[in-house]
Amino acid sequence: MQDPRTQIIEQILQKLQISLTQEQEVALQTFFEFFLSREDRSTLLLTGSAGTGKTLLIGIFSQFLRKMGYKVILLAPTGRAAKVISRRSKQLAYTIHHHIYEVRENLYGDVQFHPRPNKAKTKTVYIVDEASMIGDQKDSSSRRGLLYDLLNFVFDTDPQRKLILVGDPVQLPPVGHEASPALDVDALSHIGDLEVYDAHLTEVKRQEIDSGVLDNAVLIRDAYLLGQTQQLAINPGRDVITLESAYEALETYMGYYQEGNLDRVVFITYSNWQAMKVNQAIRHQLLETQELLVPSDVLMVVKNNYAWGDEKKFPFIANGEMGTVVYVANESYEERYGLKWVDAEIEFVDARGEAILVHCKLVLDLLQNKQAQLSRDQAYAVLQERQREYLGLAPSVAREQLRTDPYVNALQVKYGYAITGHKSQGGQWENVIIGFEPDYGQNPSAYARWTYTVFTRAEERVYLLNCPFVQY
């Protein structure tokens, strides 16, 4: 008699009209071992580069688990990554922060995340995509590190729950890390005392779609892994196109740009300085305005913000979230506390694909400089000035006023036409224009890894400007 588990998998594959590669079959067998395990804190680590079928397996695992009576929760490190996995898997995904934390702000304006209690049943499996982006460093958001808090959330109240971490180990690691701890068996075992099942994919199955983007991504991956980046030679043609000048890059962007469609095209840069310059050039060409902000402007949030979202649908606006300006209240513009401010309406899109309109105050100074976000001194100066506004009030009233104060909680934004490689992680765009710069660290291996990461942001076409791995 056929094993019912095998029968379920066969039904899923038949419905999808696909067959698995040998590597994917091995990964499926590892998944079964993980699924049948009765050990505490069981974790499946599924790794592989672009095109090896990670998303396909996520879908198969999810369907199987649900048919076996399990609750499956999809998570991703960023809102953009959650939207991508939601679209690809046709299942709703959440950000890790949204799901595992209660979010509050302290009196200094810093977002702090407090782990929420996990009341999920034993038969719950968490699948976390883009796990390469998850770090274990302490920061203003997490006192113990995101990876540590995620593992505690999943397992501490019920070690029989299960976790699947999915990611690409060649992608850029989290800032401040040399490697991605969430994709490292030894690190996971050490940090979370996990029983880790490991499945790794290398074979690119999507070759049949004749993708030059994917072919070159594999070239870059292999050169990086083999330590041969000095000899790396990207092959333009088909859907990988070299650009002769910055003017041609600008014209290419303009040709693909569609108002309201933030997934159509993006310009990716190596530095914040170049992103600032490219954003200025695009706005000059696109909008022909001297105004700092106008309706239809594309913005990227550069600091987590809990003050302005929708409590149920959009509980906080995450660092890296992209939005479109709908309305600017020009009469509200002012220069105060050494900064520029304006009230505006910004349209964001949640993981369900639903538009969320946010009415908020913006600080505009980051739009025209290379600063990543307001410095702590700048934020603290604003806080001190606002505290003076509430002198004479009862302490509890003053604290409540500060908690909702529009200046203390103003949304920090930059233009989102051009973004850095790190900010692009977890996202997917139809067309990606990559502006290369000198590798300031003089590290060809690290630069190749950056190139691989931004290359794999493209779904259809990549355009290369000043790429050091192409002979012009």
Search tags:
Rossmann fold; six-stranded parallel beta sheet; five-stranded parallel beta sheet; 14 helices
Kindly report the average pLDDT value: 89
**Biggest β-sheet strands, sense, barrel:** 6 strands, parallel
Q: Beta-strand level of the residues, as a percent range?
A: 15-25%
Lateral arrangement of strands in the main beta sheet: 3-2-6-7-1-8
Class by SSE composition:
alpha/beta
Number of helices: 14
Under CATH, the homologous superfamily of the domain at 4-205 reads: P-loop containing nucleotide triphosphate hydrolases
Radius of gyration: 23 Å
CATH T-level topology of the domain at 4-205 = Rossmann fold
CATH class group of the domain at 4-205: Alpha Beta
Distance between the termini: 62 Å
Can you tell me the residue ranges where pLDDT is under 50 for at least 5 consecutive residues?
none
Give the overall silhouette: globular
CATH-derived architecture of the domain at 4-205: 3-Layer(aba) Sandwich
Overall strand count: 18
What's the helical proportion of residues? Answer: 25-40%
Protein described:
This protein has 472 residues and is of the alpha/beta class. Among the domains are: 202 residues, P-loop containing nucleotide triphosphate hydrolases (Rossmann fold), CATH 3.40.50.300; 118 residues, no CATH class. 33% of the residues lie in helices and 24% in strands. It is built from 14 helices and 18 strands. The strands form 4 sheets. Strands 3-2-6-7-1-8 form a 6-stranded parallel beta sheet, sandwiched between helices. The protein has a 5-stranded parallel beta sheet with strand order 9-18-17-10-16. Helix 14 links the parallel strand 17 and strand 18. The protein is globular and about 70 Å long. The termini are far apart. The model has no long low-confidence stretch (mean pLDDT 89).
